[in-house]
């Protein structure tokens, strides 16, 4: 007797519980508060050093302010975007944020937000002439992860921390997951190299397989936090239980709104969005597109539960047949 | 460092803290979280500005005017912290009648000698009876009304530094000035403190030391020294650059800031009295003790009372022998051998081309580094090989490249920017031939001594008598802790013989103790390596006194006696740090009190005794001979007792304040065509080299690149040299975003990618627009590093601050044109063409004399860059004091 | 490699366990199950200090078989609280850099390329040259007869990542040799 499947693949107890880990596991995640990011890129480096990821790109200025690694990909699992804005754009951001506030966005959440005391000054601060946004992007570790759902080999799994991790020893590099990520995060690591000068002594790991942030699975199993959040000088990146982080993010948002900074908004905290919310939550100071993030990400496997219901029996039958064949072969 | 979080307002000026010191910047963010206001004053909008409450763009090199304007604002509006100023500063001190201020001398103070370009500071002295002044008791007027009181002199000196002058000189709007002034004054006083943060953005100017001093004067007036969240934080750039000055590898000092003796100081007594005589107030009265301990540490039993502790073993100076003077000597073939210990002057020093040429004159060069840096390979892939100026087969320099051990491969200590000494443990052995400097220097010394063994030549005695017997480990490497123990010092005789000193107070002048660096005494107290203490911060209070060890005496905030009032009570509960405990009869508090521990606040001091005993209970500035914080500096600076604005050597703006255009004591070098300056406001240079360029570091790289351009993860983050320009300038010159540009100075020309950005702001100065561009200096030409590019320091001339002998990297003039630079000899032709147009050389490559005044310059009457007559800076000699050239010195 | 245990075959685990959709526990590979960080497999960890800027961030250096395998911030430090900037975070590459030089290189006068040289020979050659340069440019006194007791034939310029103990020996030795032109990044 199978209970009815939820509309999306992840169950109400969270994605880890649904992946066989039981209800007791806490889903871990990141909160990246871009309002205090100083753009130092320590997260990019600490990530690469820990994961032994190779250098990206062709070692030329990219043409995107101080960003020269471009985007998340097979080799870059943390990426800092730099956006230079003048006054008119800042005003637009503030206005679009104000609309979100009037839609009641910041009040979503289990507990009452700190409301500014009566008479408190909520006049927006003077709009500066210029601002320079910096934001560290990372795999979202979606509640409903397209990459995980479509992986035909079982190489991608949902860990006990609720993160989505590629097992390179299983991955055959088919690349199905690449198209299934609504954020364009996961990518196949090619065999090329930028320059002999940048090669490490040991061979580049995980060549020819799909690669992305593992939420430092290999640190979490030992009780350590991920390399990026550990190194972040201003703690723009924090790591912890997702629930607490979302709470923190909402507090921070309410605080900024109370200062009239309506341009602030959360990204990934809403469990009703097209991926069921993300493990990596962000506080942004403009619309997501400005940072290169999709405004309304949708998991491509949204309709999969329905499909699975229909093909479920057949699939089980096939699996059983395969198992029998295997048993036969072993004997 | 953590103390920054206690500030109520933080002004970051002359520093790009978020980029150059990201981890320290967490404390600024912490302060901001607690409600502090953060203001960034900088020519560029940087990652620091992005996280500040406001960015105030400034014309580079004009900080004395801005800070002087703030001083005036504080004085005119009675916003100074009166009780603090009266108690702890020399505001009430009366100056000598002979003193004449720069206000009365068109930018020159009394005592200037135009022949030598130097000052005699005799007239800057305090008034009073000679012996009393010597004992730190000059004439004072506590009403602060005496016209020659420091307070009144200060008021007059800055009277013309008005907000209008700030706008006309710095390009800062009255509104921004008012915001800054309001921010710092409202965050100062009993309850609140303001902190300034600076770095090389102040130091690397001609007059850089005076920029820092202006902030010092302002902070003293606001009562922001020696208190929580106060002060002027120097954000130093290298792991132990503080240690490199404390235990110096600098020509002018010995360990513990004892000066190197000068020629003529033939006698030990004369030498120590010049540092500090026994009758003076404060801790320099013990200069003799510190010196004796150093000499005992170095020459052991050979240093005796009879031979004045081997004082004549010390070599003597004849003027400045800084790295740029040495460059000039190399060019004259006056230096045979050069050691580069983790340094890359071909890239990192001013006038890179001249640096490389100088090295080609050496007989031998030793380079010790991790990577094959450009200073090791200039003879085969330097830019001069391409231009044809040098040919590999003509360069006779013998080069030894020795691989160095890195920070994980040796034990030792670094002293960070706040004087905290931290020990590193060794993790692994260095690979291959890599060795530590400790090992190399010890081994070199051992062999040199071995080769000299048996010599009867008196000039070899200092080497042969040197204490050079350090214990070694199982690999034959010197134990670094043994060296630290020598630095700390020990008892040589008596009951405690052999035991380490626990404080410099235990040092004696009779030869019964030794110690290599008096300010480090205590770092090995009780035979324990105190620098290795690592009680986690979470288990300590904010001061964290049990992590590492800070000199002196593990004190974290200097002059902290000033955190309490005349009676020894904290100025406020919110800002308490140390205070007088009447019951215990002792100064107590969170930090180690920076004051004689049992001296009562109402102690009048015993002037007759000298030293610490002479200090009164309110003489918080215990290193000063009058116990006060100096608003006016009668000694210590060679270019004036009060900070005064001068324009940079190549500035195109006439000095709006004085006829004296640039710093009268500035140090320059005549090196034919190789170290020319644009005449700026004094000639056509203002139109030929119209733009100001300023150089800096960025987060992703380190200094000359030896530790960053060879690392893959850092190279990819910032792979290429770029120049930051405003959209207005890009349009004026015709530069494409992310395209190429060529930058030409009077020294050289380089090519760079272009970042067109609103982060650069053209400034309105009078009726002109000044364009400033930014150039990070990390790249170099060569074929070894992962990423390469033109070296920005090739553009910079050797123009030094006379106080520090540090070059002006922050304000130089250039021309800019779109596209890449020419290759080969055509590059030299381009540079030459601009020099000719600027009138600094003629068609036959002869250097033309620089005009002395605009009147002599026969200026084009249509050249609007010269608004009024300015007196030209006289070319100062290479050294600030008359130094006989090498040839004049007799060799016996 | 252990022989695959039949009962651990993913599909069977999927059918048997709570991970009905085969996206969690059921599909974990033996390699994944054995995941251990290299901080845990290191022979040891030593505490160090970052060699870049002067903030003095504390580092934890993990090493195995005589090689540094990882460097990260030390959360115990009251100054840095475990954080490192990109340079500090890259300092493992400073140890294991592909471009790091580990042997002595020698360029003879006028030569067009490097050659190898034994370390011991190199140090001995330098000691000889040191003494010769010292003699060549020795000055006993100035023109007024004041003692100088120095040589102008030798100069040095050091980086500011040289330990206090190293600077101390350098200053001590050079001063005793009369070599006054000793400078440091602190001047630049």
TrEMBL record, chain A:
Domain 4Fe-4S ferredoxin-type: 28-58, 130-161, 162-191
Location in or out of the cell: Cell envelope
Region (Disordered): 1-21
Comp. bias regions, Low complexity: 10-20
InterPro entries linked to this entry: 4Fe4S_Fe-S-bd, 4Fe4S_Fe_S_CS, FDH_Electron_Transfer_Unit, Formate_DH_Fe-S_su
Residue ranges the record marks as coiled coil: none
UniProt-listed CDD domains: FDH-O_like
Signal peptide: none
Top-level lineage group: Bacteria
Residue stretches spanning the membrane: 311-329
Entry protein name: 4Fe-4S dicluster domain-containing protein
Organism: Brachybacterium rhamnosum
């Amino acid at each position: 007797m199978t209970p009815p499947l939820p509309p999306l693949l992840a169950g109400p107890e969270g994605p880890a519980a649904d992946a066989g880990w039981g209800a007791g596991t806490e889903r871990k995640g990141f909160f990246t508060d871009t309002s205090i990011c100083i753009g130092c890129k320590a997260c990019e480096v600490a990530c690469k050093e820990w994961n032994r990821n190779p250098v990206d790109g062709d070692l030329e200025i990219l043409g995107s302010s101080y960003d020269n690694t471009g985007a998340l990909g097979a080799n870059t699992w943390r990426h800092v975007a730099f956006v230079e804005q003048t006054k008119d754009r800042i005003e637009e951001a503030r206005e679009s944020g104000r609309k979100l506030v009037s839609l009641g966005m910041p009040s979503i959440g289990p507990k009452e937000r700190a409301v500014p005391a009566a008479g408190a000054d909520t006049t927006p601060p003077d709009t500066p002439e210029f601002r320079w946004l910096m934001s560290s992007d990372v795999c979202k570790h979606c509640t409903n992860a397209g990459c995980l759902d479509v992986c035909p080999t079982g190489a991608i799994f949902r860990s006990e921390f609720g993160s989505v991790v590629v097992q390179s020893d299983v991955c055959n590099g088919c690349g199905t997951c690449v198209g299934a990520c609504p954020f364009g995060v996961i990518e196949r690591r090619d065999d090329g190299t930028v320059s002999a000068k940048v090669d490490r002594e040991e061979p580049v790991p995980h060549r020819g397989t799909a690669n992305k942030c593992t939420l430092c699975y290999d640190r979490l199993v030992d009780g350590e936090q991920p390399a990026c959040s550990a190194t972040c000088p201003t703690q723009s990146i924090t790591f912890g239980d997702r629930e607490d982080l979302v709470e923190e993010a909402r507090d921070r948002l309410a605080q900024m709104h109370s200062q009239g900074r309506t341009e602030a908004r959360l990204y990934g905290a809403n469990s009703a969005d097209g991926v069921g919310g993300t493990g990596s939550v962000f506080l942004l100071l403009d619309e997501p597109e400005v940072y290169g993030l999709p405004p309304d990400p949708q998991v491509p496997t949204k309709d999969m539960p329905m499909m699975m219901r229909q093909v479920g029996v057949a699939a089980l039958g096939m699996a059983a047949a395969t198992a029998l064949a295997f048993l036969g072969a072993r004997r | 460092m953590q103390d920054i979080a206690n500030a109520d307002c933080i002004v970051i000026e002359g520093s790009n803290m978020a980029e150059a010191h990201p981890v320290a910047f967490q404390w600024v963010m912490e302060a901001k979280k607690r409600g502090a206001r953060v203001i960034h004053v900088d020519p560029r909008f940087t990652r620091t500005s992005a996280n500040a409450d406001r960015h105030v763009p400034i014309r580079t090199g004009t900080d004395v005017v801005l800070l002087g304007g703030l001083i005036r604002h504080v004085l005119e509006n009675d916003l100074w912290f009166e009780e603090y100023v009266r108690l702890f500063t020399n505001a009430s001190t009366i100056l000598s009648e002979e003193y004449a201020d720069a206000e009365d001398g068109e930018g020159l103070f009394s005592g200037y000698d135009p022949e030598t370009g130097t000052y005699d500071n005799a007239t800057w002295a305090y008034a009073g009876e000679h012996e009393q002044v010597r004992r730190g008791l000059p004439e004072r007027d506590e009403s602060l009304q005496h016209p020659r009181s420091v307070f009144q002199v200060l008021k007059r000196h800055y009277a013309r530094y008005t907000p209008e002058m700030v706008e006309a000189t710095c390009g800062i709007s009255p509104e921004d000035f008012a915001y800054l002034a309001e921010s710092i004054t409202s965050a100062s006083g009993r309850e609140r403190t303001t902190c300034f943060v600076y770095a090389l953005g102040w130091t690397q100017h001609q007059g850089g030391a005076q920029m820092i001093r202006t902030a010092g004067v302002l902070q003293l007036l606001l009562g922001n020294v020696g208190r929580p969240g106060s002060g002027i934080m120097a954000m130093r750039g290298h792991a132990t650059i503080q240690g490199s000055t404390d235990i110096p590898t600098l020509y002018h000092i010995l360990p513990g800031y004892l000066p190197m003796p000068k020629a003529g100081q033939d006698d030990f007594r004369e030498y120590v009295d010049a540092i500090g005589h026994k009758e003076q107030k404060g801790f320099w009265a013990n200069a003799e003790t510190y010196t004796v301990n150093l000499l005992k540490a170095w020459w052991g039993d050979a240093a005796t009372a009879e031979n004045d502790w081997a004082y004549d073993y010390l070599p003597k100076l004849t003027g400045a022998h800084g790295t740029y003077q040495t460059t000039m000597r190399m060019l004259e073939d006056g230096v045979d051998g050069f050691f580069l210990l983790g340094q890359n002057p071909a890239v990192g020093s001013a006038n890179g081309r001249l640096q490389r040429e100088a090295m080609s004159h050496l007989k031998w060069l030793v380079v010790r580094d991790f990577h094959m840096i450009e200073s090791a390979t200039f003879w085969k892939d330097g830019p001069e090989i391409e231009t044809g100026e040098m040919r590999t087969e003509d360069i006779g320099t013998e080069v030894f490249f020795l691989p160095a051990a890195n920070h994980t491969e040796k034990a030792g200590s670094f002293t960070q920017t706040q004087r905290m000494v931290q020990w590193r443990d060794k993790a692994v052995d260095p690979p291959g031939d890599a060795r530590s400097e400790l090992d190399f220097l010890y081994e070199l010394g051992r062999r040199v001594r071995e080769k000299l063994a048996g010599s009867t030549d008196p000039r070899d005695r200092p080497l042969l008598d040197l204490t050079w017997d350090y214990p070694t480990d199982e690999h034959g490497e010197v134990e670094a802790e043994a060296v630290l123990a020598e630095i700390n010092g020990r008892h040589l005789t008596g009951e405690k013989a052999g035991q380490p000193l626990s404080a410099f107070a235990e040092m004696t002048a009779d030869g019964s103790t030794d110690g290599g660096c008096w300010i480090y005494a205590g770092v090995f107290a009780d035979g324990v390596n105190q620098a290795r203490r690592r009680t986690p911060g979470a288990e300590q209070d904010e001061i964290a006194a049990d992590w590492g060890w800070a000199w002196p005496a593990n004190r974290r905030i200097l002059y902290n006696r000033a955190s309490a009032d005349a009676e020894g009570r904290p100025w406020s509960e919110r800002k308490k740090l140390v205070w007088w405990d009447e019951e215990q009869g002792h100064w107590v508090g969170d930090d180690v009190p920076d004051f004689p521990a049992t001296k009562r606040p109402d102690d009048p001091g015993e002037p007759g005794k000298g030293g610490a005993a002479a200090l009164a209970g309110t003489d918080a500035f215990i290193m000063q001979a009058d116990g006060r914080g100096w608003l006016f500096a009668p000694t210590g600076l060679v270019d004036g007792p009060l900070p005064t604005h001068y324009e940079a050597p190549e500035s195109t703006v006439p000095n709006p304040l004085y006829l004296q255009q640039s710093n009268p004591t500035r140090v320059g070098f005549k090196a034919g065509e190789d170290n020319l300056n644009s005449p700026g406001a004094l000639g056509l240079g203002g139109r030929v080299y119209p733009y100001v360029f300023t150089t800096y570091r960025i987060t992703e790289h380190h200094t000359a690149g030896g530790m960053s351009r060879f690392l893959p993860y850092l190279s990819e983050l910032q792979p290429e040299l770029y120049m930051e320009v405003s959209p207005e300038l890009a349009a004026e010159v015709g530069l494409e975003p992310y395209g190429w540009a060529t930058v030409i100075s009077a020294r050289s020309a380089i090519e760079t990618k272009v970042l067109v950005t609103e982060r650069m702001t053209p400034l309105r100065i009078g009726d002109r627009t000044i364009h400033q561009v930014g150039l990070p200096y990390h790249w170099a030409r060569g074929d070894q590093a992962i990423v390469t590019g033109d070296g920005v320091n090739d553009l910079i001339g050797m123009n030094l601050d006379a106080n520090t002998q540090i070059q002006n990297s922050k304000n130089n003039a250039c021309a800019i044109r779109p596209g890449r630079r020419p290759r080969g000899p055509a590059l030299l032709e381009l540079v030459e063409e601009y020099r000719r147009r600027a009138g600094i050389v003629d068609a036959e490559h002869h250097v033309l004399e620089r005009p002395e005044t605009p009147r002599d310059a026969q200026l084009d009457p249509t050249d609007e860059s010269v608004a009024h007559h300015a007196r030209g800076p006289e070319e100062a000699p290479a050294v600030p004091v008359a130094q006989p050239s090498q040839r004049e010195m007799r060799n016996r | 490699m252990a022989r695959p245990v039949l009962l651990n075959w993913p599909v069977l685990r999927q059918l048997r366990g709570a991970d009905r959709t085969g996206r969690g526990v059921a599909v974990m590979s033996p390699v994944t199950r054995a995941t251990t960080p290299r901080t845990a497999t290191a022979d040891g960890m030593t505490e160090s200090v970052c060699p870049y800027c002067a903030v003095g961030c504390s580092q934890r250096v993990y090493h195995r078989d005589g090689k540094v395998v990882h460097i990260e911030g030390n959360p115990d430090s009251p100054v840095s609280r475990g954080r490192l900037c990109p340079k500090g975070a890259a300092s493992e590459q400073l140890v294991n850099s592909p471009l790091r030089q580990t042997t002595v290189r020698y360029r003879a006068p006028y030569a067009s390329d490097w050659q190898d040289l034994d370390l011991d020979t190199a140090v001995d050659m330098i000691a000889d040259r040191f003494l010769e340069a010292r003699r060549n440019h020795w000055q006993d006194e100035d023109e007024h007869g004041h003692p100088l007791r120095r040589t102008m034939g030798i100069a040095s310029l050091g980086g500011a990542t040289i330990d206090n103990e190293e600077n101390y020996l350098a200053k001590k030795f050079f001063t005793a040799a009369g070599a006054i032109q000793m400078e440091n990044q602190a001047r630049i």
